[in-house]
Amino acid sequence: MNANATASQASVSESNRSRILQHLYHNGISSRAQIAKALELTPAAITKITARLLEAGVISETGDLEGSKNRRSIGLKLDTAQFHVVGVKFARSLVEVGLFDLAGRRISLEDLPTVSEDTIPATLATIHEHVNRLIASDDAIVAVGIAVPGPYLQDQGRTAVVSSMTSWRSVNFLAEFGEAFPVPVFIEQDARAGALAQYLFDRDSTCENLAYYLIGEGVGLGVIDNGRLIDGSQGAATEIGHISIDVHGIPCDCGNVGCLERYCSAVAIHQRLLDTDIVPDAGSMTHTEACRALFAAADAGDGRAAALIHEVGRYAGYGCVTILNAYNPARIVVGDIVSEAGQPLLDAIHEVVAERAIPDIADETTIAISPLPTDATVTGAAAVAITQFLEHPSVFFDDV
Amino acid sequence: MNANATASQASVSESNRSRILQHLYHNGISSRAQIAKALELTPAAITKITARLLEAGVISETGDLEGSKNRRSIGLKLDTAQFHVVGVKFARSLVEVGLFDLAGRRISLEDLPTVSEDTIPATLATIHEHVNRLIASDDAIVAVGIAVPGPYLQDQGRTAVVSSMTSWRSVNFLAEFGEAFPVPVFIEQDARAGALAQYLFDRDSTCENLAYYLIGEGVGLGVIDNGRLIDGSQGAATEIGHISIDVHGIPCDCGNVGCLERYCSAVAIHQRLLDTDIVPDAGSMTHTEACRALFAAADAGDGRAAALIHEVGRYAGYGCVTILNAYNPARIVVGDIVSEAGQPLLDAIHEVVAERAIPDIADETTIAISPLPTDATVTGAAAVAITQFLEHPSVFFDDV
């Protein structure tokens, strides 16, 4: 089952370059001899690959590790503070741009003005201008990562369905941004980007079987199975938001019926609020504002608000049961706007999981609210770029 | 994301052994120099690993490949006919035992007597006796692969839920068979075993993103994503049979409500037949016999039979839409008993997929009835053993 066995020579070389970089990323300063031993690579391959990485400035030499004059005992280092990446998060009405280093430390973050159907072209222009300005002012930036709503078709560069703001569907992210900047650009579905961020940066989530369950303007999912993101053939796997929980239920723009995101997204919550007076001025609010007003009302003791959160939480719980049966992760991290409801939401999810999941599986699964801020997806966008930097170094440096 | 970067030395060595074996399995006779070049391993590592594999008799030397006397140009070979594996398939009422070589060629196949709740202990005894007799009579047998209904908990050795024959739940397959034979035993969920068989042996399915959709006494799924089986943390991922398609639907033994297998398994079909007189003597038939009688009635022009198959096919189609959104495979292969309904079933599946799947994704997905015989799962059981042989050679030979 190991595709390496038939991989071409070029991809084997790139794979070994990547293994060396990842070794340095995860293990810190190491000598050539230590790397050679850990990865069972030839001294010749190590010498060749590290020489190119040094020449390209990707890694640097530190002092002698073992007190000898042997070149193979000199320390090699990947300085995570030396390289920066830009992360751009698109939701439907929200766009955020952040600057991060390779360890995921945030250097800056900016929210762009709220987007409506009419302002998409202006928003795209603002992103071009903003990212170009960041890159012009910071030589350390090596890549841009972009997180977009799914189902995102990797090869085509388009989101196949955007339930609540269909104009996004006409944006080809690959055509718009693929070559837009002087550094490489990588685009990934938002929840999958969030899963990479949890995997790389959240100390509690560094397990090899991790799901990031994004409940925001849309509902999305990214799953890391045995240390690897589940992709699908077009990069459109793990589209939990469009998995039906009721084949006789509410029709969705995607063509399916009873899609999960029709019941527990921020958009669905906002719609429900418009039919009640729990949040009287919901009609003039953004989806995020409306959700936050609901959560505040519940915190203030409004029983109807608490009941609506419980109902939404039960639907989120049905989604969790599907995630358990579909992916059997060891940990599910719930993030994005709706997760701000906090413990009452988590309680409703746990209630449904206790009722409906297979006990042997539920007992071994942790479900938690993301400890990263709600803007985890922008960190995820950075994680997409960082993962590419570590896995495909030759993309970043012509002479590697 | 590459776990290799932090793998222990022992697992790196085993990984390189496996890469060499897989190279020989997929590419045929190769010299040490060719392997070293293809895998970028050190000549020392190649010499050491191949010496051990030769000593253990796993591989053999053929003539000189390049007309020189150089030892590194002598051909090395993994003879797939030289090693045999036993495959055992458990369904609920069906047990099959087959003998295969490493290329998946079937040498023999035997169906054991139909199992009922009362005869499980006798069936287990028969399997012990049968497999031991096979091993005693054939020195080439290196492993036993066992395929069991899911959700199968790899670490515990138990199936967590068996809807229609609950006594199986009390069988601990690992305790019963883990050490039962003089060769290593590997146990895997049935549909996942079927996916491995399609991947290894079906020329049409050698794509890297493949789903095997088992619609038999239970409903199961195995998914290969980018060449690797999706496992989950307990080996219980891809349990499509227990994913709800209707959270307000029919309760299932697993605790969930509206589980897919309640609507389109052979057991569900049999239940439906008992409520009609389409197959008058359905009450005295096994699930398989009842399904086959239904399919024969439809073939003979019975409109009610055709309507029932269409209805079941639509439910199978809802499952396919979930598979597309959950895993985005390039190919879905439908197998096991219910797939014997053939084209009318496939037509109903395609009808639902055309209505409900995201068009950009549906357009890029092939859905086909398995070209392997209905007993593909027993071939799958063999594929489980063969995959282990190629991935973990040291398990098979003490001196490797």
UniProtKB/TrEMBL annotation, chains A, B:
InterPro entries tied to this protein: ArsR-like_HTH (IPR011991), ATPase_NBD (IPR043129), ROK (IPR000600), ROK_cs (IPR049874), WH-like_DNA-bd_sf (IPR036388), WH_DNA-bd_sf (IPR036390)
Segments crossing the lipid bilayer: none
PROSITE patterns in the record: ROK
One Pfam entry name: HTH_24
Similarity section: Belongs to the ROK (NagC/XylR) family.
PANTHER family (alphabetical): BIFUNCTIONAL UDP-N-ACETYLGLUCOSAMINE 2-EPIMERASE_N-ACETYLMANNOSAMINE KINASE, ROK (REPRESSOR, ORF, KINASE) FAMILY
Name of the molecule in the record: ROK family protein
